[in-house]
Amino acid sequence: MTDMRAGAAPPESGTNVGFIAAIVAVATIGGLLFGYDSGAVNGTQPGLKAAFALDEAGLGFTVGSLLIGCFIGAFFAGTLADKAGRRNVMRLAALLFLGGALVQGITHDHTLFVIARIIGGMAVGAASVLSPAYISEVAPANIRGRMTTVQQIMIITGLTSAFVVNYFLQQAAGNSSVNILWGTGIEAWRWMYLMQALPAAVFLIALFFIPESPRFLVAKGRHDEAAGVLAKLFGATVAKAKLVEIQSSFSVDHKPRLSDVLTPAGGKGFLGIRAIVWAGLLLAVFQQLVGINVIFYYGSTLWQLAGFTEGDALLINIVSGAVSIAACLVTVAFIDRIGRKPLLLIGSAGMAVALFVMVYAFSHGTLDPAGALVLSPRLGMVAVVAANLYVIFFNVSWGPVMWVMLGEMFPNQIRGSALAVCGFAQWFANYLIAQSFPVMAAGIGLAASYTFYGVCAAISFFLVQRFIHETKGKELEEMAG
């Protein structure tokens, strides 16, 4: 993570890069949990429908119920983290995820399953906004983008791990919907949920070995503790100067609060909300409107609709996951060199083109007697290649860059509150996409559904051009509100 090539400045003298990297590795396990759940549910949908007698709308709600918890967890995590600390809220999130995974794997009651899924979602939502924020608050500016990008790598690693586990469980069982494994009496699809408990337990334990955010400590008036953490991160000399800079970035008349997102007297805003918060909302919502989580949540279902077998569909998911990790590594190499905004623009343009190629393939398919879409071998290959190009462009750009920018673009005083608002919006948009896709696919078809996502990708290009400002290389104390 410490690229020393031309264009990538070395860390400041005294910076403990190894210690920072270890902290980042722990903090981003929350991203791995989100990715793992997203990938796990991808292969459990036949089992869910069979076990709970769900129609398409019921399946959409059951899958999307995690996201109800996510936007609740994301909203309250930001403000709760301003009161109890980033680390403590992440510990709570890990505990909730552990419990939610176990209950989802063993319960035979649909209501209890949905409640457990919502609880797990609260954990995912909290970790998703706090992990990048925490990393931004401990990493130096010149490597902050690369460090925060690890969050997206962990999300995709979790996704790919789940795809691999799902594939081998499905192969071992033959039919993940009904067949049990290892004489346990537990169907294969339930094991796909139970496996999530392992990384959740690791996350919970590891969080006891990282320090609290120094910027949170300053906000709470715990300056001596903050100085100690900063010294471990950057060395004693640099720590003293940074402590003074951080202290001066907080309001002298009140501690951080939710109302800080409102436009201050004489400030720029719209409908009473700061302009910088609107920019964060733009990033948060359009990351979902381009439809990426249709691939994540419904990849197996999508490819079966396109004419592939269940086993082939799960293999395609594994390939997509591996490609995504490679794309994120490209981002690690370039985000602190060329900046955040150019990557977003490249991603928007590339995703739009790839999505419209998928629309072409889906619109030229045929329907079998049961009304299911069937693609010719040539069109099927076009769809698979376009989907993987789409995934590459997303994971080079909007996937990691949105989380990087949300973690760093807000001033210290409003970071927790702005993350609460933007995190809520991001997960609510995520929920709407997940909830609507099964109904859209059954109603208007894949071609029309993907046309909507392609149009949103094209619109995002022009919005980024107009409203997003570069944050590369800036200290958090330089961010304007």
Write the layout of secondary structure elements.
Layout: H1 17-27, H2 29-52, H3 56-84, H4 86-106, H5 110-138, H6 141-173, H7 188-194, H8 197-206, H9 214-219, H10 223-234, H11 236-248, E1 269-270, E2 273-274, H12 275-289, H13 292-305, H14 310-334, H15 340-363, E3 366-367, E4 373-374, H16 377-396, H17 398-408, H18 415-443, H19 445-467
Antiparallel strand pairs: 1-2, 3-4
Task: Describe the protein's architecture and organization.
This protein is mainly alpha-helical and 481 residues long. It has a single domain, classed as MFS general substrate transporter like domains (Growth Hormone, Chain: A), CATH 1.20.1250. It is 74% helix and 2% strand. The chain has 19 helices and 4 strands. The strands form 2 sheets. A two-stranded antiparallel sheet has the order 1-2. The chain has a two-stranded antiparallel ribbon with strand order 3-4. Helix 2 (29-52) runs antiparallel to helix 3 (56-84), helix 2 (29-52) runs antiparallel to helix 7 (188-194) and helix 6 (141-173) crosses helix 17 (398-408). The longest helix is centred in the first third of the chain and has 33 residues, at 141-173. The model is unreliable at 1-10 (pLDDT under 50).
Strand arrangement, largest sheet? 1-2
CATH architecture: Up-down Bundle
Outline the biggest β-sheet: 2 strands, antiparallel
What's the level 1 CATH class?
Mainly Alpha
Helix-strand string: HHHHHHHHHHHEEHHHHEEHHHH
Domain unit count? 1
